[in-house]
Amino acid sequence: MTEGSSAEAELSVRVSSIRITDVTQDGDVLTFAIASQKLNSSAGVCVFRTYEDFDWLQQSLFSQENLPGLHGIIFPPLPSKALPSQSNTQTKALKQLGFLALGQAWQSYSKALEFYLQQVATHPTLCKCNALDSFLINSESPGRQRGRKGIFNRLSQAVEEMRKESHKDVDNFFQNERIKNTNLAALSKVATEKLLDVVMTEQKLALACGHFSTSLHLCVNQDDAAAVAFSKVCLKLSDIIEAVKRNFEKAGSSNLSTLGLGLDLESRYQEAEKEMLFRRTCKLIELETVKKSTEKAKANKREVMEAFQKAVEKEFSLISSVAKQEIERFHSSRVNVLKNFLIGWCEQQLNTAKEFAELYSQHLEACRNMYTE
Amino acid sequence: MSGSCGRIPPPFPDNEDQEAESDTRVLDSDEDDDDDDEGEDIFTGARSNPITPTSAPDEGDIFSEEGSYIRSDVHHATNGLHSDEEELDLFTEATVELTLTNTTSQGRREITGPTASACNTTQVPNSILKPSIVTKTTEELEEEESGDQFELNIAVTNPEKIGDGMNAYMSYKVSTQTTLPMFLNKTFSVRRRFSDFLGLYEKISAKHSLLGCIIPPPPQKSVVGMTKVKVGKEDSSSAEFVEKRRAALERYLQRVVAHPSLLQDPDVREFLERDELLRAVNTQTLSGPGLLKMINRASDAVNKMTIKMNESDNWFESKLQEVENEEQLLRRLHAAVDSLVNHRKELCSNTAVFSKSVAMLGSVEENSALSRALSQLAEVEDKMEQLHQQQAFNDFFILAELLADYIRLLGAVRCCFEQRMKVWQRLQEAQSTLQKKREAEAKLLWANKPEKLQQAKDDINEVKLSTANDKHNTWESKVSQYERDFERVTCTVRKEVLRFEKEKARDFKQHIVKYLESLLHTQHRLVKCWEAFLPEAKAIA
C-alpha cells in the first residue's frame, strides 16, 4: 500500500452505497462492518475495521504529499475514540462523546462514523486518496501503522495558539469567516449540550414512569367488590403510565437519532473549519514573519530569503484559494445536511405524537366505559 | 344519640317542581349493571379538582361557568326499583341531574343526601333509624349508601393576603350554591382563614368521631409555606403553595359535605353561612388545647399498644390490616408520582434552556431560511416547555394530591377503628365494674350483714359518673347502654368503611379520566406544534 501517494485514483465503489452495517463489541474493542458496492459491477464488498483503522485513514488523508493547498481543506471530522470498557461510566462516556455515547448498541456512534466515510468519499479531492479505497475494499486491515503524524489534528490550547488565533487577517472575506465560524462553533456546541440534557431528562422520566407503573401493579386486591373496582382502576392507570413511558422513550430516541446527531455533526464540522482557518492563519503569520526577516536580511542572504518568501507566498495563496472553495462548499452542504436532519426530526416527532394521541384517546374511551362495567 | 348515625330527612320542600331531589336509590348494587349506570349518571359531573392554575373567575361566574348542566326527567320505573323492603316503593319517579361540564375551576360534588320529599307518609323509610341492632348484610348496607341527590356545590377561591408581616394570613372565599332547604339562601359566600377550617375539623371531630364516623382530615399546616407568604415573597413557589392550599381546602370541604351526617351538623352549616366566625384559637399548636391534644394523642398511642380487643368479628381485624397495607402502598405511589413531577419540572427547564440556545444559533445564522427555521424551532421548544409545565401541574394536582389526600383519609379510617376500640374498652370497664360490685353484693349476702348488703345494692344502683350523657341511674343500665353504643359504633364503622371504599374507587376513577383527558389535550397541542414546524423545516433551501 502506498501511503500518502496522491496518484489520481478514483474511488472504486459507489459513494452512496457506503454503509456501516454492524458493530460488534469484544471487550474493549469495537469492530465495524463496512459494506459498499463496487462501481463497475453489482458485487458488494464488506470489510471489518476498528477505530485504529479509521484513525489510520484520517492520518493518511492529513499526510498526503504533493497536494497543493492541502492545508486549506476542511477535513471531515472523525469522532473521538469510544472507550467501551466497563470502568467507563456513562458520565465519562457522555463527556467524551456527547450524543454519540447514547443510543443502543453504539448505533449513534456507527452512524457518525458512517457519515465520516461518506463525507470523505464525496470530497472532490480527498476521495482520490488511495488510502480511502484500500480502507473500503481491502480485506486486510491497514494494520496498526501509525505512520507520520501529518498535520496536527487537534487544536491545542497553548497560550501561543490562542494568540495566533486572534491574529488579524489580511483578507476581509477570511476575517469575517473566522468571526462567523467562532460564533457558530461555540453556539452549536452549546445547543448540542443542551439538547443532550433534554434527552437525558427524558430518559429519567421514562424510568420514573416505569417505577410508578410497576408500583401500581402492587395494588391489586381481590377481597371484595370495592377492592376489585379499585384494583381495576389502578391497573388502568398502570397501563396509561406505561404508555407515557413509551412515549418518552420514543421521543427521546427521535431526538437523539435525528436532531442530536445533526447538531453533533454540525458542531464537529464547525470545529474542523476552525482548524483549517487556524492552519491558514498560522501560514499567514509565517509569511509575515518571513517578510519581516527578508526585509531585515543582509544582502548575501537576501536572494535566498526572497526565494523562500516567494515559496511561502505561493503556499499561502494556494491554501487561501482552496480554503475559499472549501468554505463555499461547506456552507451550502451544511445547510442541506441540517435541513434533512430537521425534517427527519420533525417527521419522527410528529408521528410519535400522533401515535400516542391515538393511544391515549383509546385509553380514555376504555376508561369512560369502565363506568358502565 | 339515636339519630346521629342515620340520616335525618330535612323538612319537605313545598314546591313539587323542585327538581333538586332525585331518588336514584340503587337497590341491587351487587348484581345489576343498572347500579353503575346510575352511578354514571349521578356522578359524572362531579369533578372536584381544578385543571388550570389560572386564578378564579369573576364573582358572578363561579357557578355560572357550569351553567351547562342539564336537568332531565328520567323515569326510572324500570330501573331496578323492585324493592325488598316495602318502604322503598315510595320512590317511583326520579329526577336525575346530569352535569356535563368538564373544566370547572371549582368542584362540584353531588352528594348522597337524606331521603326525598316524595316520601309523603310519616314513616321514615330509612331503615337505619330503626333501633335495631340486627347486623345487616353487606348488600343491605350498600343499599342504604345511595340515597337522594341534593345539589350542593362548594368552591374555595380568591385567596387574599390580609395584614402584614408575621401577623398576616390568607383569607379564602368559600362560596356555596345549594338547593338544600336547610340553608337560608341559594347562593352565598363567606371569607374564611385556614385556622377556621382547622377549627371546623376540631368541632366535627369532637362530636362525630366517637360515633365511628370517618372524619375527613383537613390540609396540613405548613410553617415554611406560610412564612414565605407572610414575609411577602412574591415568587412562584409561594404562589404554588397558596394554590395548593386553596385546592386542598376545597377538596376538604367537599368531602365534609359529601358525608350525610356531617352535612347535618350545625357547625358545618355555620361555617358555610355565617359571616363572622369566632376565631378558632384552639388550633394553634402551642396553645393550651393544642398541647392537651398532643398529650391525648400520646396516651392514645400507648393505649393502642396495650389493648388487645377480643374481636368477635373477623371483618374488623382484616379490614384494619387492609387499611394499613393500603396506606403503605399509597405512600409508595405518592413517592413515585412525586419523582415524576420533579423530573417533568427538570425537563421543563432543560427545554427552556435548549430553546434559548437554538434561538441564539438562529440569530447568527446567515442563511435566511435556516435562520428562520431555527427561530421557529426555538419557538416550538418554548411551547413544549409550557406544555411540560402544564403536564407537571396536572400530574401534581390530579395524581399526587389525590394520593396524599387518601393517605390521610386512610389515617382517619384507622382513627375510626380506634374509636370503636375505645368504646369497647369503656364497655369492658363498665362490665368489669358491674361484675365486681355484684361479687361484692354476693359476698355480703353470704356474710349476712344486712346493713352492708343494702349499701352494696345501692352501690350497684347508684350513679357514680358525672358524664353529661348519663340518663340512666344504674350500673346495669349503664352497661346495657354501653353495649348498645358499641353495637351502634360497630354498625356505623362498617357502613362508613363501605361508603369510603366506594367513594375511593369512584374518586380514583374520576381522577384517572381527568388525567387522561389532560394527557390527551397536551398531546394534541404537541401534534399541532410539530405540524406547524414541518413546513418551516421543508422550506430551508
Mean pLDDT of chain A: 84
The count of helical stretches of chain A stands at 8
Distance between the termini of chain A: 77 Å
Strand line-up in the sheet with most strands of chain A: 1-2-3
- Radius of gyration of chain A, in Å, reads 27 Å
Strand order of the largest sheet of chain B: 1-5-4
CATH T-level topology of one domain in chain B? Substrate Binding Domain Of Dnak, Chain:A, Domain 2
How widely separated are the two ends of chain B? 84 Å
Regarding quaternary structure, what we see is heterodimer
Number of discrete helical segments of chain B = 13
Shape of chain A: elongated
Q: Could you spell the SSE succession of chain B in H and E letters?
A: EHHEEEHEEEEHHHHHHHHHH
List keywords for this structure.
heterodimer; A: mainly alpha; 3-stranded antiparallel sheet; 8 helices; 3 strands; disordered N terminus; B: 541 residues; mainly alpha; Substrate Binding Domain Of Dnak, Chain:A, Domain 2; 13 helices; 8 strands; 9% strand; cell projection (chain B); endosome (chain B)
What does this structure look like?
The complex is a heterodimer of chains A (373) and B (541). Chain A contains 8 helices and 3 strands. Chain A has helices spanning 51-62, 90-97, 107-122, 130-137, 159-165, 172-217, 225-296, 299-370; strands at residues 19-26, 29-37, 44-50. A 3-stranded antiparallel beta sheet of chain A has the order 1-2-3. Chain A is elongated, with a radius of gyration of 27 Å. The model of chain A is unreliable at 1-8 and 153-157 (pLDDT under 50). Chain A is 65% helix and 6% strand. The termini of chain A are far apart. Chain A has 373 residues and is mainly alpha-helical. The longest helix of chain A is centred in the last third of the chain and has 72 residues, at 225-296. In chain A, a hairpin with a 2-residue loop joins β1 and β2 (29-37). Chain B is mostly helical and 541 residues long. Chain B has a domain at 321-462 and 471-540: Up-down Bundle (Substrate Binding Domain Of Dnak, Chain:A, Domain 2). Chain B contains 13 helices and 8 strands. Chain B has a 3-stranded antiparallel beta sheet with strand order 1-5-4, with no helix packed on it. Chain B has a 3-stranded antiparallel beta sheet with strand order 6-7-8. In chain B, β6 (152-162) and β7 (169-178) form a beta hairpin. Chain B is elongated, with a radius of gyration of 29 Å. The termini of chain B are far apart. Residues 1-7, 9-147 and 463-472 of chain B have low confidence and may be disordered. At the A-B interface, α6, α7 and α8 of A face α1, α10, α11 and α13 of B.
